[in-house]
Amino acid sequence: MTNLSSMQYMLVYNTFSFTIAAMFASFIFFIAARSQVGEKYRPALLISSLVVAIACYHYFRILNSWEAAFTLTNGEYVPSGKPFNDAYRYVDWMLTVPLLLVELIAVLALPKKDREGLFGKLAIAAFLMIVLGYPGELTTEIVPRAIWGTLSSIPFVYILWVLWGKLGAALSSQPPHAQVLMKNIRLLLLFTWGFYPITYMFPMFGISAQSSVVGVQIGYAIADVLAKAFYGVMIYWIAFAKSEADGSLPARH
Amino acid sequence: MTNLSSMQYMLVYNTFSFTIAAMFASFIFFIAARSQVGEKYRPALLISSLVVAIACYHYFRILNSWEAAFTLTNGEYVPSGKPFNDAYRYVDWMLTVPLLLVELIAVLALPKKDREGLFGKLAIAAFLMIVLGYPGELTTEIVPRAIWGTLSSIPFVYILWVLWGKLGAALSSQPPHAQVLMKNIRLLLLFTWGFYPITYMFPMFGISAQSSVVGVQIGYAIADVLAKAFYGVMIYWIAFAKSEADGSLPARH
User: What is the CATH number of the domain that holds A202?
Assistant: First the structure.
């Protein structure tokens, strides 16, 4: 950890606070919005709500850890000696990535034979992806970070490749309006998940230590808001469109 | 930040505390009142509840930051050196202004073709309005504050102008009782939103630094209570009147 200017410190601090607010607001939304979609799609929304609730908790901890890691000295934020706990994110991902996979599989509503074994394979890949990424996160040295990052990318690419294929294969069986949304969610998946490895690589870009700390924290926070809260809203739209198409929408007068 | 008298400090403190109470009470109200209007209008009330929940969270943080920014010395409140974090408001507006726009569009229940693209345009304008206002908020110097304030006013006026027009155009298609409410909400929109730029300009009025700090904090808090909590209550009245008119009111015994 290095000294940060007041502006750099506050930028990260306010991004964390923003993330907390975004996560709990989407928690309330997902819980309440369950009654607005068909019975069949409610589990997907419930899982969305768990994902953002877990993330909200972790961002509270992350913000507190960030506050404790610095002391304000002569207008600058100086490391206090207390380490900033990066592990919160990895613990969060251990819980939320498998849930995000379940959520996506749930809303696809694939036939049983296509679902079988799918979650198991993806969950193992997710576990490897997170566990292999963590050792690299603990260092800002380029070589070990690059090695662990590359190892972690193998299961990462595998997950995206499988999901991309499944989402593509499921497209034809979806109602027309849901098809457009599914194509969008497929792109969003690629875009938001792609945000993580780019953020991971920040310290390798030859930028200053300060910019790299700030960039990594803000990058992950934005990626988490997109991949969890915004992703959940997309899942809600799909669930709504599918409920409309299969007539399971709660009665409206 | 300047020294404040005990009276000035407590006036701001108690206004923040009042705002927290108003926000969480209206959160409970909006969540519970959903079941009292037709299905079609429930999303509008749900969004009202998100807006005040997010604001409640931020006012907790704002109150804590206010407390930390001063120390009581010889009966006077002296800046402690910890900065008062103005950014909470701006982060709050980033999340709540788009939601307020969705809420208003949702309760208007415009035909699909009139809705299309409307939210996108307004959301971009809202983003510009907030981002351009912030740099001016960080200073009490008149010139930069006036420049950023003026720039921020352009998208601000645009949003109000579009909403005023849409609300006016939607009037004729509303049931009679809702028409009166819509006219009121249109005035309330102008009145409460107009409160923000006036508050923003306080430091330019040639009043003392103390009065200007106190005025800005109290002004924004009152504007937030009106534009979020009271506005949500108006939305509820409209939703109720429209449910009554279209027969979607839940059965009463």
Answer: 1.20.1070.10
- A111 part of a folded domain: yes
Q: What distance in Å separates the CA atoms of residue A18 and residue A222, rounded to the nearest whole number?
A: 10
Residues of the domain holding B132:
4-246
Name which of B39, B53, B248 is nearest A25 (Cβ-Cβ).
B53
The first and second tokens of residue B217, run together, are 């904090």
Instruction: Read off the pTM.
Output: 0.91
Contacts of A125 (CB under 8 A, 6+ apart): A155, A156, A158, A159, A162
> Does A252 fall in a domain?
no
A6 contacts on B by Cβ (under 8 Å) = 83
- Collect all residues of chain B within an 8 Å Cβ-Cβ radius of residue A250: 39
Residue A213 maps to a domain: yes
Whole-number pLDDT of residue B79: 93
pLDDT at A253: 45
- Supply the ipTM of this predicted assembly: 0.88
